[in-house]
Write a structure and sequence with these properties.
three-stranded antiparallel β-sheet; 143 residues; 2 domains; five-stranded antiparallel β-sheet; 29% strand
């Protein structure tokens, strides 16, 4: 993946080596050079950068490299995290697709389509609807 990202102009993959006195991430820009402090403008809950030493970060340098680096994301999960943003508990999660949104887990599948159709498939199905409800299955139990 690093090879693919290295081909994107202006994007770098750099290693976090710790945190500075202002709690900003310190990045290893080049071997033998002083670490460079970076800003992470995208994060709601900024991790403890000191505990992120050794992790890889996706970074851009604004103003053609003259500006301070900006961290776009982490390529590794920070210590103590659950591994991905999808595992964090949210009060509301909004997912939008122009044509279709599909959620799959094992034998279960939910497909939401732009025309208003909803397809639900699974080994065991419980369904409630305020409008017409077509139910197809080997066995159907109603109420």
């Amino acid at each position: 993946m690093d090879n693919v990202l290295a081909q994107v102009q202006g994007v770098s993959v750099l290693r976090i080596i710790g945190a500075d006195a202002d709690s900003r991430a310190l990045l290893e820009v080049a071997e033998g050079e002083d670490p460079c402090p970076a800003t992470a403008v995208w994060m709601k809950d900024v991790p403890d950068w000191g505990r992120c030493a050794g992790l890889r970060a996706l970074v851009v340098f604004p103003e053609g490299g003259a500006g301070s680096p900006v961290i776009l994301g982490l390529l590794d999960a920070p210590p103590g995290s659950e591994g991905s943003p999808g595992k964090q508990k949210k009060k509301r999660l909004h997912i939008e697709g122009e044509e279709e949104v599909v959620i799959e887990c094992g034998k279960a599948k939910i497909a939401l389509r732009a025309d208003g159709r909803i397809e639900i498939r699974g080994g065991h199905l419980i369904s409630r609807s305020s409008g017409p409800n077509k139910i197809k299955g080997a066995t159907v139990h109603i109420n």
